[in-house]
Structures are given as C-alpha cells and as structure tokens.
C-alpha cells in the first residue's frame, strides 16, 4: 500500500490544486465540502502517509571525513518531516571539520563553506540512470531571514517539481528495484554519465548547494523508483553506523567494512 501511495501522491495533489485554481479561471464551482476534504486528504497522502517498512539495506558512506548528520532517519522517520519524493529515510550530511566554522550570517557564497566541492562517492555499486547538473549553486540561507526566504522559495520549487527541489543530482540503480539518490550536487561536477557502471567508493560528483538547500550539503536516500516524484523511500544503514542528528559520520574508507555491491556492477 505504501508503494501505491507513493505513485499517486504527487499527481493527486497536483490534480486537486488544479481543480481549485481552475474554479475562478474557468467559471465552475466545486462545493466547499468537497474541495476542503479533498485538499486535506491529498496533502496527508503527500506528506504523512506511505512509510515502507522493510529490512534496512546496508550501504557505504558516500563521503569521507568529518560529516555531521542533519535530518537523520536514525533520529526520526520520516527524517525530513514528509514522505514525498521518496525521502522517508533520507539523510543530510554537512561537512564539519574541526577548526573551521560554517558561516551563519545573512548570506554567503557556497565556496565560503568547507563542504563545498568536497567529493561525493558511490555508496554502492550500480548503473547510473539519471544525471542532472545544470542548476546554479546559490548563496546560503542559514540566517533567520535566509531561512524565511528558503521556505518561500521552497514552496515555488515544489510547484516546479522534484527536480527543482533536489537540484543537481545523480541516481544509481542498485538492482532489485533499489535506487540511490545523491542530491544538491555542485553544478557541472558530475563525473559519470547515464549508463555508466560505478563501484562503491568511486567519486561521482562534488558537494554543492543547488536546489532547495540552506547550505552546501549532501542529501542521500534510497528509493524504489528512479524518479523521486513516484518513488517510495527505502530504509538503509551505513555499514559503519548511521549517525543520529548532530553526530559525526564515520567514513567507510577508514574502516574497510564492505556492504552491498563492493565492486562494479
């Protein structure tokens, strides 16, 4: 049922929104007692319903070094507050090296953050099925005014579709209806193409600040379809342990702990 809901949640919400918007434009009327429950129901399916419960899939860390977890599925599910776009179990990772702070004033260029341009690696072997890398890396949104702007901008990005939310990204087919998404990548940093086979640990792109992002970070998730719009999020675990919010991620490159797909597919 959760996977079926994932297929229809975005189209249903768009359909209900179009019906509401079309009333004054096309001069027709839908009763209030129909539109309000329909909108509430569609949003509930979009945000709060549709959790896939299955055994977590073991994958390697997609980054190396002191990366701190934000919005971790080890702390709550759904980790980002909603199930849409297959992000039920997604995790955000922010590069946080000792001795170098991340700017928090009004706005900063992406390059002012230590994580910008850091390598992103394949968490498991597979075949690349989607690459998008043309969106710009925008300035940070970590201040209070910036976060307010991010909320408003995020609503517009939602209307424009998943691609504008996740920014530059790579999707890798891991087999057995499992897909890894690497999002908010640096513009024109992707080193693989659709159809390429990648090995676990292989560099595939750089961390960026594209899409709906407050600061340079990596958004990583597993899902059961290559398109986030129609995907259900799948649970995963890093072989070195999945950190809770605020904890540092241990890099698998320093541990030598194999997970699924430790060679090229």
From TrEMBL:
Keywords: Membrane, Transmembrane, Transmembrane helix. GO terms for molecular function: metalloendopeptidase activity. The chain crosses the membrane at residues 32-49. Residues 162-224 form the M23ase beta-sheet core domain. It comes from the Bacteria. The keyword Transmembrane applies. The keyword Zinc does not apply. This is Peptidase. It comes from Paractinoplanes toevensis.
């Amino acid at each position: 049922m959760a996977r079926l809901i994932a297929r229809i949640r975005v189209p249903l919400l768009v359909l209900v929104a179009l019906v509401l918007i079309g009333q004054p434009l096309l001069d027709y009327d839908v009763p209030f007692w129909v539109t309000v429950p329909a909108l509430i129901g569609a949003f509930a399916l979009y945000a709060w319903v549709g959790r896939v419960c299955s055994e977590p899939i073991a994958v390697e860390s997609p980054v190396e070094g002191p990366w701190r977890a934000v919005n971790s599925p080890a702390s709550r599910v759904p980790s980002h507050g909603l199930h849409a776009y297959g992000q039920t179990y997604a995790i955000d990772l922010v590069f946080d090296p000792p001795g170098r702070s991340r700017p928090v004033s009004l706005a900063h260029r992406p390059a002012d953050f230590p994580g910008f341009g850091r390598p992103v690696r394949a968490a498991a072997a597979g075949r690349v099925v989607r690459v998008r890398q043309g969106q710009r890396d925008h300035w940070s949104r970590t201040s209070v005014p910036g976060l307010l702007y991010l909320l408003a901008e995020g609503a517009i990005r939602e209307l424009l579709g998943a691609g504008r939310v996740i920014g530059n990204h790579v999707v890798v087919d891991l087999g057995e209806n499992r897909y890894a998404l690497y999002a908010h990548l640096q513009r024109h940093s992707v080193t693989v193409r659709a159809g390429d086979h990648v090995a676990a640990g292989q560099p595939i792109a750089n961390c960026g600040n594209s899409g709906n992002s407050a600061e340079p970070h990596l958004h990583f998730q597993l899902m059961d379809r290559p398109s986030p719009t129609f995907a259900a999020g799948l649970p995963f675990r890093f072989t070195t342990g999945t950190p809770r919010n605020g904890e540092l991620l241990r890099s698998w490159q320093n541990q030598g702990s194999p997970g699924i797909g430790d060679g090229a597919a």
